Amino acid sequence: MALANLSVVIPSVNSIEDLRGCLNALRSQKNASLEIIVVDRLGEPVRTALAAEYPEVIVVGMAHDATIPMMRARGFEAASADAIGVIEDHVIVPDDWARKLLNALETGADVAGGPIENAATETQIDWAAFLCEYSACLPPLQGGESTWLPGNNIVYRRSVLDRYKSVIDQGKWENHLHDAMRADGIKLLLLPDLIVGHKMHYTFNLYMSQRYLYARSYAGARVADKPTHIRLAYGLAAFALPPLLFVRTLRTIISKGQHLDRLWPSIPMLVAFVLSWGAGEVRGYWFGAGNSLSKVR
């Protein structure tokens, strides 16, 4: 493992079935030596299965209420390679994924990532959930320097991550880390052909709850140090979010010309999902994040 040229950090928050697909794809990587680190909050049954089926994987156990940002931070600490990639336990990577990440760093990039495509194509609810959450990440995307990168298809130069340990340890989502890097002049490189598959299955109620929890955690963190009158004002403003989010999602998908046949049947669910997001932001601004971040999957 000390000779690995790419460490891959994977928070385990869903199921062993999801992990199997993810890890099998990583086993198929070409022209790269990987150190795979699974940071698990699901407990002993998953860890026992991993030890039996994937003995090459490093498993780091955490408490069941650990948040995904905390799990990523713990994975960074466990990583030994000079390049550290991050995906999710339901992300399926192509066999040249690791090599493309390493090539990006070898040509001078410090941080690089790519688009996300849907790999859960069996049901309309899976399509609606994916389009709601990942419309901005759908290919095609413009390559080159970017103002953002997805946090679940990305690689960092280890020396750069080390510089931002204090930011990482704040336990916030990757946009805070990326904003801090960009403020210091570090460029985020978007690789348009670095496409991974997002294979996450949902029920309607599960995704409604996930939208709410994510939004509440986001809003609560945003105003954690703000006075009451600011929190109240932000909460009131959040009532206008659902129609704005709905229109933005539709415009983004239509502009890409992708999956329009799946978009139109998804519209009733998209309406519900943006309403759930709006409710989560209002609650987060007015009452704080609570333990919502620890329940995000």
What would your notes on this structure say?
With 297 residues, the chain is of the alpha/beta class. It has two domains: 193 residues, Spore Coat Polysaccharide Biosynthesis Protein SpsA, Chain A (Alpha-Beta Complex); 92 residues, no CATH class. The protein contains twelve helices and eleven strands. Strands 3-2-1-4-9-6-10-8 form an eight-stranded mixed sheet, with helices on both faces. It has a three-stranded mixed sheet with strand order 5-11-7.
What string gives the helices and strands in order? Answer: EHEHEHEEHEEHEEHHHEEHHHH
Name the CATH homologous superfamily of the largest domain.
Spore Coat Polysaccharide Biosynthesis Protein SpsA, Chain A
The fraction of residues assigned to DSSP E strands is 5-15%
Number of domains: 2
Biggest sheet: strand arrangement: 3-2-1-4-9-6-10-8
Helix content, binned percent: 40-55%
| pLDDT < 50 stretches | none
Reading off the top of the CATH hierarchy, the class of the largest domain is best stated as Alpha Beta
What's the Cα radius of gyration? 19 Å
Question: What kind of sheet is the major sheet?
Answer: 8 strands, mixed
Number of helices: 12
CATH topology assignment of the largest domain: Spore Coat Polysaccharide Biosynthesis Protein SpsA, Chain A
- Please, what is the average pLDDT? 97
Task: Throw out a few tags for this protein.
11 strands; alpha/beta; globular; 297 residues; 3-stranded mixed beta sheet; 8-stranded mixed beta sheet; Spore Coat Polysaccharide Biosynthesis Protein SpsA, Chain A; 2 domains
